Amino acid sequence: MSQPTIDLSTRLLRNLTPWRTATTWRIAFSGGLDSTVLLHLLAHLAKTQSLPMLTAIHVHHGLQFAADAWPEHCQSVCDALGVPLEVVRVQVEPGASLERAARDARYGAFIAATHAGEVLLTGQHRDDQAETLLFRLMRGAGVRGLSGMPSERPLGRGHLLRPLLDVTRAELEAYATEYQLSWIEDPSNQDRQFSRNYLRHQVFPVLTARWPQAVATMARSAAHLSEAQGLLDELAQIDLAHATTVSDFDWLGLPSLELAPLEKLSDARQRNALSHWLKPLTTLPDSDHWSGWENLRDATGDARPVWRLAAGELHRAGGRLWWLSGGWLHTPPSPVSWADPSVSLALPDNGVLTFTGQPPDGPLQIRYREGGEVMNLPDRGHRDLKRLLNESGVPGFARGRLPLVYRGQQLLAVANLQGLNGGEQGGWYLHWQPLIEDQGLS
């Protein structure tokens, strides 16, 4: 065995050492050069090393006629190496960017397939990293984008790993030649209307003719920028720690931050902290759309500003920022009858209601605020509900979702608000568990 091959196996195993306790290493196997070499390397390492279970997954996009033969090719390769293969067929949604749509469909399949304790291995290499850097530079990316593809990141309930990012395409070709591997050549890789193909075939040959080390130096720049992004993330965590305070309305179950600590920061640090906080919640806005943050931050005290982003909305209320998404963006239907108040009531698009103590006599009905509601309180008489909500400091966005319990035309209780949520004389209280959104899947 030649020295370059020994080096490649050793480097791969070193890169994967922290992940050898995973339950499964699942290889994203397109059948192309990169994933073919990765699969072959791992299958041969498994003969002499104690590795997690190896499996492969092939995503069939169905975008071209030639692709129909690829699952069969991938199956034959996996059979020869003794690696189980799962073939997943996906529907690529039409859009402005076919590349992006195919990638979204592919990674959707990867997320669904990757379980807790598992890792998905992909074959991107150093040349891909350089292409990513230049591609994002042309799109005006910031430090995060220019840091390129991370070597590892969370994916679904597991992790995605790119163990070949320090390997060149030339090294992969040399390995494939030595072992006489066969792989698929995707015809679309020659189509230069796609931006990455244009960079690969038109731009990089010119760059490397003038600067032979261009790929290596660009990948090194991406590594420097990745380190810089790590420092920015640490700064964001420091700044967010001051803004992550307890609220009287934490029971709403919504991500929120105190505004005042953020306002003390420079504009750049505000954007950095918010970008870090918003990243798991939504696609981050581009530079032109950060004016929405400034409008939200600088609005007058009695305003109810909203910053609309791709996967939800940022609201300002009670000196805090609140993230709303999913069902929180829709008005729940009403009224809702509560035939048996002794059992919990699941509200359409609005969580669950429960009585503690002996519930009031029925029949009861759940409604939501429309304006003009009046509530009769012991020792206080009839009080306007709007004023009562103001006294309680309820965030404006939550007022239309607070369940109101009526008996006929009488407003008996407002869920969760002390003094309004039950009858002390009757010994019953109304509890509301608001809609729980899985914020991490946006």
UniProtKB/TrEMBL annotation:
Residues at which ATP binds: S30, G31, G32, L33, D34, S35
Location (main, coarse): cytoplasm
EC number: 6.3.4.19
Enzyme kind, highest EC tier: ligase
GO biological process: tRNA modification
Domain Lysidine-tRNA(Ile) synthetase C-terminal: from-to ranges: 364-432
Gene name tied to this protein: tilS
UniProt entry tagged with the keyword Thylakoid: no
Pfam family, one: TilS_C
Similarity comment: Belongs to the tRNA(Ile)-lysidine synthase family.
Gene Ontology CC: cytoplasm
Keywords assigned by UniProt, alphabetized: ATP-binding, Cytoplasm, Ligase, Nucleotide-binding, tRNA processing
Cellular location(s): Cytoplasm
This protein's domain notes: The N-terminal region contains the highly conserved SGGXDS motif, predicted to be a P-loop motif involved in ATP binding.
Reactions that this protein is recorded to catalyse: cytidine(34) in tRNA(Ile2) + L-lysine + ATP = lysidine(34) in tRNA(Ile2) + AMP + diphosphate + H(+)
SMART domains linked to this entry: TilS_C (SM00977)
Name of the protein in its database record: tRNA(Ile)-lysidine synthase
Protein task: Ligates lysine onto the cytidine present at position 34 of the AUA codon-specific tRNA(Ile) that contains the anticodon CAU, in an ATP-dependent manner. Cytidine is converted to lysidine, thus changing the amino acid specificity of the tRNA from methionine to isoleucine.
